[in-house]
Write a structure and sequence with these properties.
Layout (H helix, E strand, L loop, with lengths): L23 E8 L4 E8 L11 E7 L15 H10 L7 E5 L8 H18 L2 E10 L1 H12 L6 E5 L12 E12 L4 H9 L5 E9 L6 H26 L1
Parallel strand pairs: 3-4, 3-5, 5-6, 6-7, 7-8
Antiparallel strand pairs: 1-2, 2-4
């Protein structure tokens, strides 16, 4: 007889950054949906405190086993965005790092992030309605699904090592929204490519990129595509602002 032992790891809803990048602040709110305290991080670009203008927002969704501090550290998302801002690829933006636990960004965790964390950030920071999603692995599925399910909140998504759900958006997003799906050839890329191609007529811009020799490695994904991804985000925001 073979005995299989399955270990269930309790989700840590508050994980403090071990080494914060300048401009990053950790917050805790009490979630009415999860009935517990939950952490999230916010990064503001250089010069935020010296101005009164409003900023667009990027929400970064971590993968399975990650948390709100996973991508917010010294070698994570903020320094790469700061480089892109300095080099003119994207306008200065606020970044939010929620804790999605192991939820797949569905159910009560989804409600917590979109109905508690996001409104709190909007109250406490000077944000515009221009918003983007970035996600890896579990976060890739969450970001691509939210782009369609919450198209009123987000206009563009960059996703790595995962992809969109089946089907097409219920709303016509062909003149407004953009999606870029990036997979390594050692990730399950074939099914993700097919699902992405099915969306090509439903979005203004829909890309699929296959990276050679890359597995489920966020660092390599970012190294090869993140700076170009910032350009796509800026392009989408700029196009929508001209329509108003």
């Amino acid at each position: 007889m073979v005995v299989v032992t399955v270990l269930f790891t309790q989700v840590q809803w508050i994980v403090l950054p071990k080494a914060s990048y300048p401009g990053t602040t950790h917050f805790v709110l009490h979630s009415q949906f999860l009935k517990t305290d939950v952490g999230y991080c916010v990064w503001t670009p250089p010069g935020y405190a010296e101005t009164t203008k409003k900023y667009p927002l990027i929400m970064v969704l971590h993968g399975m086993g990650g948390d709100e501090s996973h991508d917010a550290g010294l070698y994570g998302f903020p320094p790469q965005l700061e480089t892109a801002i300095k080099e003119g690829r994207i306008p200065p933006a606020i970044v939010v790092f929620p804790n999605g636990g192991s939820s797949g960004y569905q159910g009560k965790a989804e409600q917590m992030i979109l109905r508690e964390v996001l409104p709190e950030v909007d109250r406490n920071y000077r944000t515009t309605a221009q918003r983007a999603l970035c996600g890896f692995s579990m976060g890739a599925g969450g970001a691509s699904r939210w782009l369609f399910a919450h198209s009123d909140l987000f206009q563009v998504a960059l996703v790595w090592g995962g992809g969109p759900p089946g089907g097409v958006p219920s709303k016509d997003l062909s003149k407004t929204h953009s999606l870029w799906v990036i997979c390594g050839d050692q990730d399950p890329a074939r099914s993700v490519k097919r699902l992405t191609e099915n969306l090509s007529k439903s979005l203004f811009e829909c890309r699929f990129t296959l990276l050679q020799g890359v597995g489920h490695e966020l660092g390599k994904y970012h190294e090869q595509t993140l700076q170009d991804g910032f350009i796509l985000i800026a392009k989408t925001w700029n196009r929508l602002s001209k329509k108003k």
